[in-house]
């Protein structure tokens, strides 16, 4: 079952997501909470804005269990919007990624991305392209995993057990310069070629996506965003927001508003996805039933001896008809009784000594 997520109204009148009608380029089937296999509750929030300097919003997104994705179109007036929209539409139409299914694999996602690339090239004559990044909730070996995919410089982050990290790796010129040690990460933020991507769908020669398979852990939070967010906010600013706002919709709204306050020079799209009620392996273990034995409570560390054996052991002989091998068990029982009697005697003597001393 699904529950409609709350969509707090934002102050910016230009925010596309203010109304109950999803923006063009968005594909969403009943956002909010989804309870499916493995008792995992998936809650998502999302927000998109054209920014303060762009006429059109060329970002598109998909937010429906099991897939959460963002595409950032490139190619000039209207062409980028077409590219990102076709990418998201193709992902949403993939049978392997249908709502409620968790059987997709990396090859299924790869096939959908290849189909999206072909459709974009056909529609735009290869004059437009788009990034694509996101997560798919899948099952591998009967266990739940996040399948993270990425083409371009939109990003997927993970917040888990207090650790915040970027999972995807940017396919951009500045990232290659950072990896080669020519510039620092701080310099990359202001580099004049920071928006030049080296991989994209729909244009260019390299459309190969990167993939990561990460086990689902209770309390996982994933952030999927276009570079309109990361160009305006540092990782530290993003971390402070998504680690303090409990509901993913609040976190999404706040991040977009922060990007607009920082300049809003590009379209910005954010999806925040939470996983809770994740059934861990330890939860699958059941408590062994207690033995149906009537016995008095014994001091911890001593063997539990059934009352019938205690009575037999007191006579020192095995019962008639019982195997002689049980004699050793009787001796063990007698030994236990001797220890118990000794403890009781010590307790009694200690008590008597206390009374005498008093």
Question: What is the strand arrangement across the widest sheet?
Answer: 1-3-4-14-13-10-11
Alpha carbon gyration radius: 32 Å
* Helical segment count: 9
Order of helices and strands: EEEEEEHHEEEEEHHEEHHHEHH
* Measured distance between first and last alpha carbons: 72 Å
Q: How would a crystallographer describe the biggest sheet?
A: 7 strands, antiparallel
Percent of residues in helical segments?
Answer: 25-40%
Question: In percent, how much strand structure appears in the residues?
Answer: 15-25%
Q: Which structural class is indicated by helix and strand composition?
A: alpha+beta
Mean pLDDT over the residues: 78
**Total count of strands:** 14
What this model shows, in words?
There is one protein chain. 31% of the residues lie in helices and 23% in strands. The protein has 358 residues and is an alpha+beta fold. The strands form two sheets. It has a seven-stranded antiparallel β-sheet. Strands 2, 5, 6, 7, 8, 9 and 12 form a seven-stranded mixed β-sheet that branches. Strand 8 and strand 9 (143-151) form a beta hairpin. The longest helix has 31 residues, at 327-357. 39% of the residues are buried.
């Amino acid at each position: 079952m699904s529950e409609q997520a709350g969509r707090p109204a934002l102050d910016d009148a230009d925010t596309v997501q203010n109304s109950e009608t999803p923006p063009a380029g968005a594909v969403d089937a009943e956002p909010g909470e989804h309870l499916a296999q493995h008792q995992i509750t998936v809650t998502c929030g999302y927000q998109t804005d054209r920014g303060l300097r762009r006429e059109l919003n060329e970002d598109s997104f998909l937010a429906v269990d099991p897939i959460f994705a963002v595409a950032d179109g490139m190619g000039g007036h209207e062409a980028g919007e077409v590219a990102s929209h076709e990418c998201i539409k193709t992902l949403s139409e993939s049978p392997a990624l249908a709502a409620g299914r968790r059987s997709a694999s990396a090859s299924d996602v790869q096939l959908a991305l290849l189909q999206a690339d072909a459709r974009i090239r056909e529609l735009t004559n290869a004059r437009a392209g788009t990034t694509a990044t996101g997560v798919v909730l899948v099952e591998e070996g009967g266990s739940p995993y996040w399948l993270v995919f990425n083409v371009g410089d939109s990003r997927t982050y993970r917040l888990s057990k207090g650790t915040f990290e970027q999972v995807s790796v940017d396919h951009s010129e500045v990232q290659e310069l950072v990896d080669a040690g020519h510039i620092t990460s701080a310099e990359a933020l202001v580099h004049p070629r920071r928006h030049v991507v080296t991989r994209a769908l729909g244009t260019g020669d390299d459309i190969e996506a990167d993939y990561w398979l990460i086990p689902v852990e209770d309390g996982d939070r994933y952030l999927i965003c276009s570079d309109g967010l990361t160009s305006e906010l540092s990782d530290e600013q993003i971390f402070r927001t998504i680690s303090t706002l409990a509901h993913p919709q609040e976190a999404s709204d706040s991040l977009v508003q922060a990007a607009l306050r920082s300049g809003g020079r590009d379209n910005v799209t954010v999806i925040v996805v939470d996983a809770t009620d994740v059934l861990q392996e330890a939860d699958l273990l059941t408590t062994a039933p207690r033995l149906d034995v009537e016995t008095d409570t014994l001091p911890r560390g001593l063997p539990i001896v059934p009352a019938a054996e205690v009575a037999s052991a007191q006579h020192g002989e095995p019962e008639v008809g019982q195997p002689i091998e049980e004699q050793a068990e009787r001796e063990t029982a007698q030994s236990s009784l001797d220890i118990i009697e000794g403890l009781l005697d010590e307790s009694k003597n200690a008590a008597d000594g206390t009374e005498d001393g008093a």
